[in-house]
Amino acid sequence: MTDTITVPLTDVRVARAVELVWREAELLDRKDYLVWQELYTDDARYIVPIDPDTEDFPGTLNMIYDDARMRAMRVTRMTEGYAIAAVDAARTVRTVSRFVPETVTDTEVVLRSAQVLIAYKRGRHDIWAADVRHRVRLSDSGDRIAEKVVRLVDSEDAVPAAGFLL
Amino acid sequence: MTENIFADAPADLVLADRVAGRLYTDPEIFEQEMTRIFERTWVWVAHESELPGPGTFKSTYVGRQPVIVSRDRKGALHTLLNRCRHRGASLCEKPRGKANGFTCPYHAWSYGLDGTLRGIPYPDGYEGVADKKDLSLRKLRTESYGGMVFATFDEGIEPLADFLGDAKLWLDRFMKQGGGYPIKVLGKHQFRFRGNWKIQLENTTDGYHFPIVHRSWMASVDAETADMMSFMTDPAAITHALGNGHSVMQMVPEHSDLDADDGSEPLQARFDHVVAELSKTLDDAAVRKLVRAMHGTGFNLNLFPNVSMSAAFFRVLRPISVDETLIEHIAIGPDGPPELDVVNRERLRIHEHFQGPFGFGTPDDAEGWDRVQRGAQAAPDMPILVNRGLGREKDDEHGWPTAHVTDETGMRAAYRMWKQMMSDD
Ligand code: FES
Ligand SMILES: [Fe+2]
């Protein structure tokens, strides 16, 4: 384990993680969910918690708490054409930046970032701001996301019901 | 309804089988609803488990007015307007917590848990001009039934138990999903939609939309769960109007009274791990009770005007403006020893699967409601139909108007109450 401060963003391991996170952001904005799903390891969790401080995701109520099975069903829902919220989903443009490597080893990078997403639907722009944490598993056969936690700044407040993913 | 509905009084816009679209779009009607309905009836504010001990509180709303629900040292519940008596600052901006009282951050007037004004800093300026005993926080009448806490601005209104009337039986049944334990709140989802509150009120008793809007959710659950929800063609699945605008929609009649169990219904295989875990400490009957209630009760109890006790959660609506409404979906589960954690975790996952801003069901509902609001802008004089099943609606042996679960019996009941309250003077 290397100390946060001393690992520069130019470290090749960190750069690989950043690249993956950016690639994910673009896939989500393009709503290319089938490809997006492949970015995740089989044991990965994709989580949007409500409680801003919790790490006990299974023990609390979340907006999203997806294992591989739920992720697969979610992708089906987003792509099958029967979910009216997904069919008429907002168009989104997101920026992920302010990267901070939290821990870096040769096999795993934990990367914190800020995500600002603008969603446009029916004459209205909504802002979704979040702190994000990716656990990226590095491997010669392809880097994958092993965990993603999206903490919305307004997670404890009422957010619009969404037809897209964060 | 006359030719020109804009000349009609609000109460004339509701007929037995239809309501005017203007009901969703007219800001004046909305203002009247806030005073004639939300300030004159019992409005749900909390579940008692959200106020577990002395000094615990929750902030919420009655209609559009912010309130604090608190429990004092003797255990009594209070609903206090969240507004300082000095110059009106809000006293509490925390959604929930524990406190000895409330001190205003502006000039530090301090109030007890029951709203009594306790202290004014530098009180000499008030000598002869104000008396502390006249300056307690404004308090709403607060009563609870079966753990459900309601408040009202109307001091003269009938007791809560009378207002609930025949809904009490169903409320008692709803609480049986604790499987022998009391019910507690596990967490909540909140979201907004851009539509009138009555669109949501109607939806809590709309069985008709389910297989259409929730096709994507149906496709994602196991066959047993989907089968349980196949009430569209089940003649035993019925809706009753219970009086005072309340109604109950029985989607899974065999789960209407969870105590009525002849043991023949197999437990769903998806809960095998829960059964295995619970069986370490509980006997078979106790395990069966908890697992059979995993999806809640087989009905939605809709209480006019703002809360629905829906299958396995509470659905609460809060009107914000004529075309914006906030919804809470409150997850509940049995309040018991840590051995029940496995039950509550599973219940959280079931809740997440359907509810919330990213659930497999809620966003589709919200899209439907959004569209009702948008569509109702077109010809607001055209009626919204609530006539489904009118021809097959009959009083049952309790005198409850009853029709199929896909019929609009519950909506008609709510609008009858709406009409009565809006025409009362
Ligand atoms: S406004 Fe509350 S003390 Fe002055
Ligand atoms: Fe629905």
TrEMBL record, chain B:
Cofactor or coenzyme needed: Fe cation
Keyword 4Fe-4S: no
Keyword Aminoacyl-tRNA synthetase: no
Keywords annotated in UniProt: 2Fe-2S, Iron, Iron-sulfur, Metal-binding, Oxidoreductase
GO MF annotations in UniProt: 2 iron, 2 sulfur cluster binding; iron ion binding; monooxygenase activity; oxidoreductase activity, acting on paired donors, with incorporation or reduction of molecular oxygen
InterPro entries: Rieske_2Fe-2S (IPR017941), Rieske_2Fe-2S_sf (IPR036922), Ring_hydroxy_dOase_asu_C_dom (IPR015879), Rng_hydr_dOase-A (IPR001663)
One Pfam family named in its UniProt record: Rieske
Residues forming coiled coils: none
Protein name: Ring hydroxylating enzyme alpha subunit
Organism (species): Amycolatopsis thermoflava
Taxonomic placement: Bacteria, Bacillati, Actinomycetota, Actinomycetes, Pseudonocardiales
